[in-house]
Amino acid sequence: MQNLFHLNPKLKDKKNIVIFGTGRMGLLALTVMLQEGVYVTAFCDKNPDLWNLKIMNKPVISPDDLIRMKDHAAVIIAEENIDSCYSYLQNLGMKDIWIDKRIYSILNDCVWDFV
Q1: Does residue 86 sit within a domain?
Q2: Which of 44-58 are b and which e, b meaning 16 or more Cβ less than 10 Å from the residue's Cβ?
Q3: pLDDT tens-digit map of 51-95
Q4: More confident residue, 2 or 87
Q5: Which among 23, 56, 58, 73 is placed 20 to 30 Å from 49, CA to CA?
Q6: Above 50 in pLDDT, residue 115?
Q7: pLDDT tens digits, residue range 21-54?
């Protein structure tokens, strides 16, 4: 698992970048990637109710779809349980797995109000 704390230029060269997780961490990860000039292909989530929807104009794909992309995709973990998510992605056969610790730091520093 590679840390993106300082954006690694290798990530910008990836053909498909998928954010694993569609919750607030996923949205924040997409925002950070866009600010860094990194194109995100899609979100991936385990929840079948979200598959084939779009979030922030990005499709949500299933883990099976992610497996089909595994040789051409990098995955950014945007889930609270990093270790569990990392193991899950490894079990799917994903090898190019990244974490951006900034999103966890930002969330810990913010107060989230929900109406």
Answers
A1: yes
A2: bbeeeebbeeebeeb
A3: 999 999 999 999 999 999 988 899 999 988 888 999 999 999 998
A4: 87
A5: 73
A6: no
A7: 999 899 989 988 888 778 899 999 999 999 999 9
Q: How far is CA 20 from CA 42, 89, 111, 114, 115, in A?
A: 9, 9, 23, 23, 26
**In-domain check, residue 115:** no
What tokens does 4 get?
A: 């993106």
Q: To which residue do tokens 């056969």 refer?
A: 93
Domain that holds residue 74: 2-109
- Pull the structure tokens for residue 73: 């995709």
- pTM value? 0.84
**Domain for residue 52, yes or no?**
yes
35/13 Cα distance (integer angstroms): 16
Number of domains into which the chain is organized: 1
How far is it, in rounded angstroms, from Cα 8 to Cα 5? 8
Residue 114 placed within a domain: no
Helices (H), 1-115: 9-12, 24-35, 63-68, 82-91, 101-109
